[in-house]
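User:
I would dearly like some help making sense of a protein record. Take your time, and here it is.
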Amino acid sequence: MRFDEAYSGNVFIASHPNYDDAQVVIYGMPMDFTVSYRPGSRFGPKRIREVSIGLEEYSPYLDRELKEVKYFDAGDIPLPFGNPEKSIKMISEFVGKILKDGKFPFGLGGEHLVTWPIIREMYKKYPDLVVFHFDAHADLRTDYEGEPLSHATPIRKVVELIGGKNVYQFGIRSGLKEEFEFAKENINFYPFEVLEPVKKVLPDVKGRPIYITIDIDVHDPAFAPGTGTLESGGITSKEMLATIQEISKAKLNIVGADIVEVAPIYDSADQTAILASKLIREMLLGFAFPLSE
């Protein structure tokens, strides 16, 4: 595995050229092999990088600039098309290397199943790990039509690994009745809303290592139409930006993050990829490099 150069040519705006002295590693996971409706999220990482060129490097929300931080974009992991088992293994190995080197992993999906091997590696390093999950869908099924490796199952796997009381779900508005019942009984479950529940729980997780995973479909389709499984009734982009700002101001111990399920083929205006790239900018500035006291 090489880290002296990116796997692919295009990189996220203002990416640092050197892996060794970077504090954050951005990497893509072009996988959409298990989706139940519309494929296409394997093209998300590439398009997010391409549209990032339109970003300003300055965040007026956090009063910081990307030039203040060092992050290396390793490009996309060359996952074998149609082979989720091998892809999961490769993601695990990749993230394990990043963590061993003491860096902050920032993943770009790809379908949401890619989050499962990441959190499994994070848990090895941080046994008291907390997971914040932002999504339209609960992702708590044990299988999807008999298949346990599915974009509908990653958070159930996470719960079984780290315990439901260490998982916080926000914005959920779709799933089986059984998933909602399981969530209410076993998880810190905040359906439909995002900003106010996050404000409420921040004091409870102060000091603990936190991994944040954002499925872009937590947003209403009006703000993020380019995704595989649309679900009306979601949050606004403004609300998610405000949520990131609240988490940033709380100066929590964020140890990794990802954004998944951007499928650019369904969004000719690129508003979904543009939203994702802006969220990444804010997360880089606020999560990976916490604001000073």
